[in-house]
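Researcher: Next entry: TonB-dependent receptor (Ravibacter arvi).
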Amino acid sequence: MNRYFTLFLGVLSLLLFFSSGLMAQVRPIAGKVTLATDGSAVPGVTVVVKGSTAGTTTDANGNYTLNVPRGQQVIVYTFVGLEPQEITVGSGRSTVNVVMEESKTELSQVIVTGYSELQRRDVIGSIASVKNDRFKDLPITGFDQALQGQAAGVQVSQSSGTPGGGIAIRIRGNTSISASNRPLFIVDGTPVFDGSVTSRDFGGQNDNSLAVVNPNDIASIEVLKDASAKAIYGSRGANGVVIITTKRGRNNKTSVTADIQRGVVQLIGKPKLLNSTQLVELQRDAATAAGQNPDELGLIPGVTDLVNTDWVSEILRRGILQQYQLTASGGTEKTRFYFSGGVRDEEGVQLNNRFTRYTGALNLDHMVNHRLKFAANVNVSMTQNDRIKGDNFLDGVYSGAIKSLPYYSPYDEMGRLYVPNDPNYPDFPNFNPVGQALLPRFRTYGLKMIAGVSMDANLTKELVFRSKVSMDYNNGEEDQYEPSTTAIGGALPSAGGKGYGVYSTSTQYTLVNSNVFSYSKSIDDRHSLNALLGNEIIHTQARSSSVSGRMFPSNQFTYINSAGVVDQGGSFYAQSGLVSFFGEVKYDFKDKYLVGATLRTDGSSRFGQNRRFGYFPSVSAAWRLSEEAFLDKVKFLDDLKLRASYGFTGNERIGNFQYLGTWAAAVYNGNTGVGPNRLPNNNLQWERTNEINLGLDASMFENRLRLVAEVYRNLTDKLLYSEPIPLTTGYGSIQGNIGTVVNKGIEFSVSSDNLTGELKWSTDFNITRNLNNVKMLAKGDTLYRGYTASGVGATNAILAGQPLGTFWGLKFLGVDPATGNALYEDINGDGKISSEDGQVIGNAQPDFYGGLTNRISYKGFDLSILLHFMYGNKVLNLTKQSLLNAGEDIETNQEIAALRRWRKEGDVTDVPRYELGNTYNNYQSSRFVEDASFLRLKNVVVGYTLPARWVQRVWLQNARVFVTGTNLWTLKRYSGVDPEVSTLDGSTSAQGIDLYTLPQVKTIQGGITLSF
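Model: Predicted structure:
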């Protein structure tokens, strides 16, 4: 026994000897990892000794302890989205605190893709990312404007200069004729309503519901463009998906930031119109050419042109833009928060036009333990929009000012407004644009709330379950009154000349519940598997009502309860639902070969029982060539990846229950009843887009140069449209799936860090070429859309072999020098010009578009410049058709180009002769189709961050002052003011039309940002 005990002690002593020797060879290193931007702790950072397997990770407070071999060693710190660091540690150092900076290369950045997150370098699909620093200082109203010129394949156009007005976004072209072409917008996992909350479009211009989300609360925007990225959204993904992630708190002391901005807003330009003398001369020429005596018409020089009013200037002003925001963020290892409150107030450049927005946001994250955490987000916005009539409204303010005769004045000698039908001024025209701006009340109140709560449960180390419930709520109220001194309130027969009022409300909300299991597994550093499986239930409900009144006792009583007659009104109710199941699998072998597959099944209440469920699969693959041995010697190459994807997406946004046969109220022979209103179609289904994408990603010279090139082809069939049928059926159309549209194109993006020292200079450039083509329509019919056009029937046509946005009209061949009449191409050779001679005369699709951004910083100074360009697109200038109308209507002013009109035989010009009542010389033709290409200095930001030693004396963490400008300069060929506007905001079949559309505005403002 003693012998075994002695042996045991000997072995134990030997083990202690060796272990003490080993312990003598290592030493502990401790420290904390924090973030450079705000000093917050960074949990989960990988800390390893370079060249060994010794390693650990930081805890929830960013702390770590690591046993390091004695002697000089290199410790490596890495974390997704942060720049890796290598720190050399000598034998006498036991504490190493590390400050990590956010990654300056896209390869390490974390992006949101559908229902998951991953590093940029592991992306297989086509995804464009726009971070907050690209737009945080810009005076934009909504986050959709932040995308303009910033991402390849994303075409963003501002329809007009109206504050809070519509923005048209197209991702890789137009895919639909009648269904929505807008992408799906997701804010913090919640799909949000992007339509108009008002019932009146005010002359083609809608309000923009996305303008109610404060861009300053956004951390990043991801745009999903190909099937592998967006097929997980199935029947809603055909037009692309825009994912907005808002800011969240971090584990650090509370930080408070105040942001103050104030500036001026003015129109980028005004149309060039005739003065009184010039107009009177033109009107006399037109009357004489028609065989009439101009003196009998009251057109007497020296008398008629005694007054010379610039009507456009009369209805315009220099607006004031002001914006204030206060944010606070911080938290502990258990609970983090982000809070913000802001006010934006923008005076429109037109009198009485104003947009005011109040926003608040609160994001909370709470970790119960290492297995369970909760998150909540609330984003609330209230708006007040004082609108005025515009564009193609007959009594629009801007359109009326352009057309008004300069030899009239808006005010009499006493400074009182001239009003329609005023017995004291019987010679005054029936419309005063200044009065139309100042006298009516068109006020819209908006409320939008995006809220959600989620739970993440780590069931195992590899398996995570997330459940989320969210809501998008929208409410709009319209309060309108047009007094008896306006065109409608005073002249509308139903109003009896005693005022007209409307009050309407609308509510639309969406409830979403999603449940997702995510699985992640890595095996021996060679195999990596990620998968998710989930379901989603979406319920949408909409209600609206309206009432109108007339015969008000006076213009001091302006609400409906004062109306003498209240006999117009209505109400509306609709709901829809979507039940979905989806799954995704991604496999990575040796960080070299990546494959992925996605499948989503959607069941929609919007389609018939025969086509209720749809299936949307996608497959994708990538090959990282930079990991191959044959590229080892290419030292400048950091990452090179080829990728490809193929899949299907859909579009179900056409309205509710379009497949049903419906009945409607009817009146016959004085009796009320119901009658059939629409034919049923149980085979109606969503539009389906078949997408192919090939891409190449490259990073070179230590990630200082990054390239992305892509080619794609998207074919959309089963187009949703009301197919015309013979009227002998008792109906004019039936909702069906009638045609095919193809979009194919190429995208190229390059980002470079040109200088990286104390003087930093980076450049981002993107360019896109997209070819849109209507490949097939049912029965081969041509569908005419847009405005009714003199001589040809319509301004736009949808026909096979041509892109959407095609203009239709006569081909203008010039002006006959002998007669001064317009010459048109006689296609059918019948010797006369008629609608049978109509043909394609251009289209609104650009040949290419893109943007160029340069950012420069030196010490505390920073400069950012964005150039936005578009080339090859046309615009149908219907304003010009009205203001250069060859005498068809001389009761409107004309543009300065009328001075070069044909006057005598032998004159060579492009403007036909003026003759009162002449319509032939003003037929819809290529004379009014112009090149809308432009290069625009979209944004300029100049800032200065005060030195820390200055601001810390007044207990500040950071202070920055800056000046921004938008739309400062435009290079264009277009004879109008702004080539980018679109009268019919958001229209696909009639895009690219300028009919008295308010141009965009130029903004110059200063700001200061203070952090405490």
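Model: Note for the record: The longest helix spans residues 2-23.
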